[in-house]
Specification:
Layout lengths: L2 E5 L3 H12 L3 E5 L20 E2 L3 H6 L1 E3 L5 H6 L2 H10 L4 E4 L3 E4 L4 H14 L3 E3 L4 E7 L2 E7 L4 E3 L2 E4 L14 H8 L8 E3 L3 E3 L2 H4 L5 E11 L2 E12 L3 E3 L1 H10 L8 E6 L6 H14 L18 H8 L12 H12 L1 E8 L7 E3 L20 E3 L7 E2 L4 H15 L3
Parallel strand pairs: 1-2, 1-11, 2-7, 11-20
Antiparallel strand pairs: 3-6, 4-21, 5-6, 8-9, 9-10, 12-19, 13-16, 13-18, 14-15, 14-17, 15-16, 17-18
């Protein structure tokens, strides 16, 4: 039996503690916050998207950075084992759109309570309000940690699961990067990911609070399409957000450091240009004696209507039966390719995850152990791993956490 210290009480840290305890080790879990799983409470808007129920190919396809590194971790503890774990610990689950897995209760607190009970049953010693100051290393071997109050805790192994740099109010303040650097590990550049965009056009902020469903978004760098997908999005006081935009940020975020990107929204993706023209003609025919400004309410959300009317450049007082074919064509173009310019990302406080982290080149993918310091392991977001929305980032946390704890012999 070895003494194992886990630094960080998030999903990766809790799973690492459980798997190490199941191997028969004496496990101490150190968390600087007042409770475990603080970031878990707010994931999935407080509902906690536990994992994704897609197949293994789908899991790997949705990892954006260093997916090959996760081969051993995903196969050691896959998404269906995660679902089984929570079901066995009293959390009934359900599968929603996009194979997203949630608790039936829609309460993230049920997930955290189940983990807390499991830790207690496994005999894990949990210390809250406990901040680590430094790792203790001798001759490239981990020996324990020094706490902020000066207390020294000796151990045979340490698992670093301190999270990234996003949602800093939950305690993700980059401590793990500092610890890793002090013992010789490289930390890649970190930046916010799964984060809203800022935009240039003033009319975007005029639509603040408007949510669009089932729209198609296309983002281009010059003439090259760099992102295209269907889904939901939201206009905000600074730009655009929502599931579709968060996913896009994971793919095009780096490009925004170099230049602005053009984005178009197809507001009627189910209709071709010809079909939309016929629909518009029907609207005009039913309202032929009305002015243009009063004739297209049935086509658009009320918050978007003034913006489309202005961008159409059609005289608002004009009767619809006087609108020319060219004017109608321009209006259709607006509905099929509503223009927005993306000029940046919001900061870490609004990012769901962190892109970048401890370089995986210096970590053994079969065990999560450091290649530099014997007995030091890593798990979760502190590593240079990130994925799309949909439960994939939590799956990374569960899988790497389990493998790290299970690998201590």
């Amino acid at each position: 039996m070895k003494k194992v210290i886990i630094i960080g009480g998030g999903p990766a840290g809790m799973f690492a503690a459980l798997s190490a305890a199941q191997k028969g080790h004496s496990v101490v879990l150190l968390e600087k916050n007042e409770k475990l799983g603080k970031k878990l409470y707010i994931t999935g808007k407080g509902r906690c998207n536990i994992t994704n129920a897609g197949d293994m190919e789908n899991l790997f396809a949705n990892v954006m950075t260093n997916r090959k590194f996760l081969y051993s971790a995903f196969y050691a503890y896959d998404n269906f084992r995660v679902i089984d774990f929570f079901e066995e610990h009293g959390v009934k689950t359900k599968i929603e759109r996009g194979n997203r897995v949630f608790p039936v209760s829609d309460h993230s607190s049920d997930v955290i309570n189940a983990l807390s009970r499991a830790l207690k049953q496994a005999g894990v010693e949990v210390h809250l309000h406990t901040k680590v100051k430094e790792l203790l290393i001798e001759d490239t071997c981990i020996k324990g940690v020094r706490l902020e109050d000066g207390t020294i805790l000796n151990s045979d192994a340490v698992i670093l699961a301190t999270g990234g740099f996003s949602y800093q109010s939950t305690g993700s303040t980059g401590d793990g990067y500092h610890f890793a650097k002090t013992c010789g590990h490289k930390v890649t550049d970190i930046e916010p990911s799964l984060v809203p965009f800022t935009t240039i056009e003033s009319y975007v902020t005029n639509m603040q609070g408007l949510a669009l469903k089932n729209v198609k978004v296309t983002i281009k760098k010059g003439k090259k399409v760099v992102f295209e997908d269907f889904g939901e999005m939201l206009f905000t006081h600074f730009g655009v957000s929502g599931p579709l935009m968060l996913s896009a940020s994971s793919i095009v975020g780096k490009e925004l450091k170099k230049q602005t990107l053009s984005m178009t929204i197809d507001l009627k993706p189910a209709l071709s240009v010809e079909q939309l023209d016929l629909r518009l003609l029907r609207e005009f025919d039913e309202n032929k004696n009305k002015q243009f400004k009063n004739a297209i309410h049935g086509l658009l959300p009320s918050k978007m209507l003034p913006v489309i009317l202005e961008l159409s450049e059609i005289d608002l007082e004009k009767k619809v039966n006087e609108i020319t074919r060219e004017e109608r064509s321009h209006l259709i173009q607006l509905l099929k390719a509503f223009p927005i310019t993306l000029d940046g990302l919001r900061d870490f406080n609004e990012a769901i995850i962190t892109r970048g982290g401890i370089s995986v080149k210096e970590v053994n993918p079969s065990t999560m152990e450091s290649k530099i310091i014997s007995g030091l392991y890593f798990a979760g977001e502190v590593l240079d791993l990130d994925a799309m929305t949909g439960g994939y980032n939590l799956q990374i946390a569960w899988s790497t956490g389990f493998l790290a704890g299970d690998s201590i012999e």
